[in-house]
Write a structure and sequence with these properties.
Blueprint lengths: L3 H8 L13 E3 L1 H5 L3 H14 L6 E4 L5 E2 L2 E2 L12 H10 L3 E6 L2 E3 L5 H6 L5 E2 L8 E2 L4 E4 L5 H14 L7 E4 L11 E3 L6 E2 H26 L9 E2 L12 E2 L7 H15 L6 E2 L6
Parallel strand pairs: 1-2, 2-5, 5-10, 10-13, 14-15
Antiparallel strand pairs: 3-4, 6-9, 7-11, 8-9, 11-12
Helix pairs in contact: 3-4, 6-7
């Protein structure tokens, strides 16, 4: 019977994370969703410093890219965040790394949707060739096909331009379970089309790897000699080569803290050792 060591030998070992990722990371969905988000986050930094709370990283929820309740990956809400680069510089000045939520689905009115549709970079209907459109974040959208070179190139280009170049250190790959229900959905499969029900976990892995490699290149171009670190909500075996994951949304209770520990142990049986928990609840 194969041991965990044999299994990890097949799927790869755990990527060494940077030391700062072992510290306390803070997030609050309501802060980035607030209409005066930059003001509130600026005050949050001041409060953390005044109270001597040692925070290693702050995680931006997807509210920085929202218009109303809808989320548009690789965009900034300039009303809520009039000067995000200055805000991110303040986080860094106080020793906090910055992590930003990113999603693999483009809503139907996303500014990049027409170009990605024309490039064939979405999960498509096997018979019509049209993008599969399904509900996503109070709207309808299409998932990027990470087995298609156009989708991969667009993702890495915009991650750099709209996230990393804004002073954000890490991409937090979220909502990437590819829970597409249409039974005719298929992906390019690197030239050999695959039905989505067979490739579902692959997209989360490829998305995370694309984020990891873009961050790695960005660090190298800036002359920074530190390990690459990413976070993902989903993935298949081999995910530990690129990212940390966590035990999911939970409640503020001792009961969920107990189950977090069990969940982390279960993940380690699958070779996923770098696991975090929402210790304060969702």
């Amino acid at each position: 019977f194969p041991t965990n060591a044999h299994y990890s030998g097949l799927i790869g070992g755990t990527h060494m994370p940077p030391r700062w990722s072992l510290g306390f990371a803070q997030t609050a969905m309501g802060l980035a969703d607030a209409p005066d988000a930059q003001v509130q986050l600026d005050q949050f930094i001041d409060t953390a410093v005044a109270k001597g709370v040692p925070i290693s990283a702050f995680h931006f929820g997807s509210g920085y890219s929202s218009k109303g309740k809808r989320r548009y990956v690789f965009t900034w809400n300039d009303t809520k965040f009039p000067d995000p680069k200055t805000l991110n510089a303040k986080f860094h000045a106080q020793g906090m790394h910055v992590v930003a939520n990113i999603k693999p689905c483009l809503l139907d009115d996303h500014p990049a949707y027409p170009a990605m549709k024309n490039a064939g970079a979405f999960i498509r209907h096997a018979q019509t060739g049209q993008p599969i459109m399904e509900p996503f974040w109070d709207g309808e959208g299409s998932h990027l096909d990470f087995t298609h070179p156009e989708a991969l190139a667009w993702w890495q280009k915009n991650l750099k331009a709209q996230v990393l170049d804004y002073g954000i250190d890490v991409g937090w790959n979220d909502n990437n379970e590819y829970a597409i229900l249409n039974e005719h959905a298929q992906c390019a499969g690197f030239g050999s089309a695959l039905p989505t029900h067979r490739s579902r976990p692959l997209h989360a892995l490829l998305m995370t790897r694309a984020t990891f490699e873009a961050q790695q290149a960005h660090l190298a171009s800036g002359g920074k000699n530190e390990p690459t670190f990413t976070v993902t909500r989903a993935g298949s075996p081999g995910l530990q080569r690129y990212a940390q994951t966590w035990s999911g949304d939970n409640t503020t209770s001792w009961r969920t803290l107990r189950w977090n520990i069990r969940t982390g142990l279960q993940m380690s049986l699958s070779g996923m050792f770098n696991v975090g928990h929402d210790v304060g609840g969702f």
